[in-house]
Amino acid sequence: MARAQSKNVGISPQKVRLVLDLVRGKRVDEAADILRYMTTPAAGVVLKTIESAAANAENNDLQSRDALRVTSITADGGRPLRRFRPKARGRVGAFDRPTSHITVVVDEDGSR
Questions:
Q1: pLDDT score for 110
Q2: Average pLDDT for consecutive 10-residue bins of the chain (112 residues)?
Q3: Residues 107/53, Cβ–Cβ less than 8 Å
Q4: Plot region of 13 (φ>0 → left; ψ -120 to 50 → alpha; else → beta)
Q5: Which of 3, 17, 55, 91 has the fewest beta carbons under 10 Å from its own?
Q6: 3-class secondary structure for 28-86?
Q7: Measured in Å, how far apart are the chain's first and last C-alpha atoms?
């Protein structure tokens, strides 16, 4: 079992979860093929995290990349960035820009 995390990704967790639902439980190669042809920016970040988890499994645990499967993948809320926007009469309005923490766990098919 190997894992990888991407922290403080500048995309809301709600939008990242839409991408995660498409690759949860799939083989790593199959998930990479799906994500490569998606147009959403979240797909690129998720692909990079899955590739990192697969590399961790290959190098640290000596697992075969062909047998790796995405066993767990989550997107949790990160620390929001506080931003400000001008309002009427010279005032200012605050808003929070959401961020995400993406966690990917990969494992070999027969290990679970």
A1: 67
A2: 96 97 96 97 97 96 94 96 96 97 92 52
A3: no
A4: alpha
A5: 91
A6: HHHHHHHHHCCCCHHHHHHHHHHHHHHHHHHHHCCCCHHHEEEEEEEEEECCCEEEEEE
A7: 9
pLDDT score recorded for residue 111: 54
> What residues pair up with 102 in beta bridges, in sequence order?
6, 75
Buried b (16+ CB within 10 A) or exposed e, 7-22: eebebbbeebbebbee
CB 82 within 8 A of CB 96: yes
Q: How many residues does the chain have?
A: 112
* Type of residue at 90: G
Return the pLDDT at 109.
83
pLDDT digits 0-9 by tens, 17-46? 999 999 999 999 999 999 999 999 999 999
